[in-house]
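agent: user wants the full assembly modeled, not chains individually. Plan: 1) parse entity lines 2) check alphabet per entity 3) run joint structure prediction 4) return tokens. Steps 1-2 passed, three entities, 1204 residues total. Proceeding.
--- entities ---
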Amino acid sequence: MTVKAKRRFDITRHTSLLSSLIAVVGGLIIAFIVLMLTNPSKGLSAFTTLITGGFQLGGLKNLGTLFYFATPILCTGVAMCVAFQAGIFNIGGPGQYSVGALAAILTSLYFSKDLPSPLTWIVPLIVATLAGAVWAFIPGVLKAYFNVNVVIGTIMFNYIEMYYMMHWINDYCYDAMKGQTRAIPAQCKLPQAFMPAITANKTADIGIIIAILVAICAWVLLEKTKLGYELKACGKNAEASRYAGIKSKRNIMISILLSGALCGLGGGLTHLSASGTYITMKEQLAAEGFNGIAVCCLANNSPLGAILGALFLAFLTVGGNYMQIFGFQREIVSVITSVIIYFAAFSLFLKQMLEKMLIKQTTEINKVTGEELK
Amino acid sequence: MEMIYFIARYFMYFFIPLLVVSISGMFSERSGVIHMGLDSVMVWSCMWGVLCLQWLDGVVAGQLRLLIALLFAGVMGVLLTLLLAVAAINLNADQTIVGMALNTFAPAFCIFFARVLQNGSEHLSIRNDFLIERIPVLADIPVLGPMFFTRTYITNFIGIAIFIISAIVLNKTRFGLRMCACGENPQAAESLGVNVQKYRYAALIIAGFIGGMGGLMYILPVATHYSQTVGGYGYLAMSVLIFGQWRSIPLLGAAAFFAFCKTIANAYSGIPLLANLGLPAAFYKSLPFIVTLIALAITSKHDHAPKASGQPYDKSMR
Amino acid sequence: METAENIIEFRHITKRFPGIIACNDISLNIRKGEIHALLGENGAGKSTLMSVLFGMYTPEEGSIAIRGKEVKITNPRVATELGIGMVHQHFKLVQNYSVLQNIVLGSETLKGPFLDMDSCRKKVVELSQKYGLAVDPDALIENITVGQQQRCEILKMLYRDAEILIFDEPTAVLTPQEIDELMEIMKGLAKEGHTILFISHKLEEIKRVSDRVTVLRRGKLIETLNAAETTTTQMGELMVGREVSFHVDKKPAEPKEEVLKVEHLTMINDETKKKVVNDVSFSVRKGEILAIAGIDGNGQSELIYGLTGIMPINEGKIMINGEDYTKKSIRERNLVMSHIPEDRHKYGLILDYPLSYNLALKNYFKPEFVSKTGFLNFHKFDTYADELIDRFDIRSGQGRITMARSMSGGNQQKAIVAREIDQNADVLVAVQPTRGLDVGAIEFIHKQLVEQRDKGKAVLLMSFELDEVMDVADRVIVMFEGEIMGNLDPKKVSVEEMGLYMAGVKREEKNA
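--- prediction returned ---
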């Protein structure tokens, strides 16, 4: 009995993984088709470049680039996991991310550059985190107390951010020569520690380590603590949670604030990075925010899985950049991302189908041996 | 007076696509499928519409070029919406996530495609010779004439026609009765021999077609080139849908309200009263979004959404 | 032999669902013009068999012949064309459509491209007059009573000229008087030449109305009997497979002091502005079971939600052990009042949590279950779950790690009952605690309720099943349109009299 139970438990775990894999493969197949259609002669080599992340071309140096791309989407991915698990569809990633980024830049330019050493970058990071939470606050209130659809609420805040961002940059930190935000002081950038040594990339910094630590903390929070129990309960069945005395409004607020904070942190980490990143004057929503959704979908809403998901997407991004050598546009990576999200939308269905297939097989075996499933 | 005419015409430019796209959403949601991807349908179809305009330039003249492009945009809208249909109807997908997938897909693909097509630049230019200076007879009506029948687009009238036809279809025909039953109680509809899947497909095809046309309708009066965005219009249309409580007539009012905000946002610099207030441009630009949130906060307390919308319909469940 | 008069023949029907065989090789003939009852417990397969006949499910094996001709009923449309109609247990009505719209949906008449509602209305009015099915064709479903909704469902079948009428548990939602009316309507329909299939687990009704009765048990056909030649006892034994007494064994109650006291409770629906609960006052004492009876939709559910804090109340006071609980949070109420909720999937369980998490749903925040730093004590979760599983005999595939979703309805309910009873709260609120369960589970839960009473708890039972109310309760209050119609002793009042209270015809004056 116990043996059988254990085996079935394993099957479901495998099917989760399998449905993520199907999503990835599906995304890659679509990418391949698109590449072949646009330029049949170079399509194959471009595709190879894409899926090998350009490692042959760039060598180890790309590990640093990989981490650089993975850091923000890991943060936003974990942010989505925390929100989704609590049943909140936070699409406000782009807004929260950008506000965090700007907050980090402004703090380092105007305030923290004169502080004692580690505080020069820690303070902007904290401010970025808080700023992300602030940007999530109003959609949270609207959802919790006014029943406003959280997708609409957060989307609206993305657009409000998009328009105001230009206004703020223009007023406070515009570098007119380059058409972007001013460079932050060197002492405010993230420490590099041993990272350049192990990634063979001079500009690598500890951003990815912070992001991974945050992902682990988020996992512990969701899986091991009372708050996590409550958040997930709300996400799985809000009515039953209320019945059990869990304060659903409070939980909506906590999850969306946490989620916003994580997005803000992602923005902070990216824009304090040692390699130097700037916000350009463009009416555009930050892709890092939306890519978090894909990371979260790949990870099946698990913050630990998000680490893998983020590294994978970053890997593709690096590959996509190298693919431009063949005259292909790197937007193909976003196309893959969207296909992954698309597949994730019916991963439950895929999972059930896979389970049904597996169970059918076992029942057929059982039938042969004469013991029928009751 | 000239100012009011100017605002009225400007208003129509925003009102019509908003109305049309929210009607597209209404078809989808009344049949029981949440359509979070309205924005993507607009972005995607708009590109195909613009491309079609380019292809036909010099081949077909005048309004016919626009009409063909509109039809083409509609057909492409259907294609994209079918992705939602398959996932939502056959694969029991989480419809919100599908919508987000489409919203990620459309702009990325359109940038990719436009760059491939033009070797680098993603902006597609539009040669717009569709403005109708004045419609004979009608333009001479006092007040209304200069407001609605001078410097207008044929799309304005198509939009109104879509509204009227859709209201009749939903409320007076067998198709509407059955389709809306699928959105309210699919089990009931199925038990009376209504094929829920078929009706949902039909609804989504209509939604895709209307939404696709809406994409092209949006860009025509307001831009000279297409750059893979419709300014969050799809999301605004969704808000209009909620604000209009998924019903035809309230939808008209809701669309008008939001279009008015959008008009203010875009035309404020031409209105001395507003231009002199000295508020930042960002404020006006984000005004429609802020107003949307306030409007939703007031009206969302009671949910009038079709009861089955967003829930996968599984025949084997009772 | 009798083929000529057999309007339906089920031939070796087998229908499987994952994990169970709902119908196992069932062969059955139905004669034209008879009222044929299908008797069985929940899960015996009677609804599945009828759904197969109505084209909702396709059987894996076997076939069906209608009027002697073998047919493939692949969907309800085919069934309708064959003259088969069905009134489902949970009505299949579109809430915001009118009665007329619901009736014509799927078989509309058109005038040009548009709906021709006028001619439809004429036909509906004719039918409703002919069969005595009074209902306003233009009323919205959400505004009419359950009895009227049922008439709408019957009209739906007749509108489609159905000859074979299936009634799935039609009496569960009606007052005794409405049941009488329905029986008359059914007999009238049979007289007009309709064949009626009638699903029920209520022996009395079957005896009263049907010509023949077929007993199903665990998916198998046990026997077909002539109703006139059998007794309810015999039918009961066949249904359950053993000797059963449907009577609950209990000592007379020994009520002590008041624990729960509700005073002038009023609840107003936000949208309709109607008073769904109107000036309700009652109290429950230690050591008694007070039942709230009434037809579904008369404010009982809202009253319970108001009491347990799930819905806000507009006026009135809730006192527990002399303390005012009107403004207290759900969590605070949970500590003194446990609650077996009406809808176990909506409120009772988190279906995608494992059993152990669900069993701890009301305890997880208590010091034994969580450390001061906020980390859960999983060892306690496990031992606590195992203890309850053992004590209440909750069965599931993988013990405490089983997802609640994959458990059977009876065991899900047992898990809720176990959790709520183990709260050891002074008040136990049980709402429809036995809905959808088989006789064994029903017996178990009734025994638990009586046991709690005898331990000195105040038990508040809300049920739509009049039999349950009469059997289990020591005292009954009847609700109609949000008001209490009477405070009665089930031993002194007859079922018929109770029905008059439930229908709002009779009212105890002293309560006013």
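agent: reporting back. Residues 2-30 of chain B form the longest helix (29 residues). Chain B touches chain C through 23 residues (CB under 8 Å).
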